[in-house]
Amino acid sequence: MQRRRLGPDGTEVGAIGLGCMGMSAAYSSAERDDAESVAVIHRAVELGVTLIDTADVYGPFTNEELVGRALHGRRDQVVLATKCGLVMDDPATFPPRRDGRPEHVREACDASLRRLGTDVVDLYQLHRVDERVPVEETWGAMAGLVQAGKVRAIGMSEVGVDELERAQAIHPVASVQSELSLWTRDPLAEVLPWCAAHRAAFIPFSPLGRGFLTGRITAASFASDDFRAHNPRFASEALQANLALVDRIRTVAGRFGATPAQVALAWVLAQGEQVVPIPGTKKLAYLEENAAAADLQLGQADLAELDALPAPVGARY
Q1: Helices 284-292 and 260-269: angle between axes, nearest 10 degrees
Q2: In this predicted model, what pLDDT tens digit does every residue of 137-173 receive, in sequence order?
Q3: In the chain, N or C: fewer CB atoms in 10 Å?
Q4: pLDDT at 303
């Protein structure tokens, strides 16, 4: 797989990464299979999908434990990313609360290291800024983890340029993780250009629109513990309207003998050399389909056609 730089220190990863959240959280629990998820992570490493992303809040905690088990004996073959700053007091509650206190950051890092079975995390990310704690205090604590040798680089998630500038003044921001896809384009205006200017990686989560852009979801039928059952874009009326987006993506895919998912990922990759999407999956077949998208080169006319897609019906959350 072609490789891309993850941040200013020159660390390289496969152009496509792997988001592990869905293996343990957010989506239907009936579809979870730890053994298959471990097999997916092993196959990802073989394919060159080397950025492996998790977080302490996924589960909570169980996803880091799963990733740690899967990477036993393979740790040096991947770039391991996790996150702190969100706390799930009750797994049935959404959303979790934010905690950016320096003492929490330090405690959370030590706990993540134990669960992941490693001495150092390659990329430690602030999952959300805590509005009750100045970002300088939180970021200073994360910078201290770099100095202590517990993490190699630090990044942020779902932030704006003001917060990025305030953090950058204290310690380099290696990456920004936010949602980016053919139906969520908010970061294109300001955050993505900031990343390019500061040599920071941009890590899109949900680059396949939580599965919708694959074309495999055609009706609003989700398990009660699948958060899409309560997501505005997946409400029955909105979903039916949004299928028109997938139809147009499928048209582009037909020109290349590709799938809608591969076209959606290729469009994300085309947004900049600093972009490393992390589609999540629990299935080997979907992992291999996603990884192959790294080789799909869309033409300018194809990109323009996709750029012109209308906005989706329904809010992001």
Answers
A1: 50
A2: 999 999 999 999 999 999 999 999 999 999 999 999 9
A3: C
A4: 98
pLDDT digits (tens, 9 = 90+) for 300-315: 999 999 999 999 999 9
CB 139 within 8 A of CB 101: no
Tokens of 275: 């972009």
Q: What is the pLDDT of residues 238-281, one digit of tens each?
A: 999 999 999 999 999 999 999 999 999 999 999 999 999 999 99
From the candidates 27, 58, 124, 286, give the one annotated as an active-site residue. Answer: 58
* Residue 95 clears pLDDT 90, i.e. is over it: no
Q: What is the DSSP string of the chain?
A: --EEE-STT--EEESS-EE-GGGTSSS-GGG--HHHHHHHHHHHHHHT--EEE--TTTTTTHHHHHHHHHTTTTGGGSEEEEEESEE-SSTT-SSPEE---HHHHHHHHHHHHHHHT-S-EEEEEESS--TTS-HHHHHHHHHHHHHTTSEEEEEEES--HHHHHHHHTTS---EEEEE-BTTB-GGGTTHHHHHHHTT-EEEEESTTTTTGGGT---S----TTSGGGG-GGGSHHHHHHHHHHHHHHHHHHHHHT--HHHHHHHHHHTT-TTB----B-S-HHHHHHHHHGGG----HHHHHHHHTPPPPSS---
Report d(CA 311, CA 187) in Å as an integer. Answer: 14
58 tagged catalytic: yes
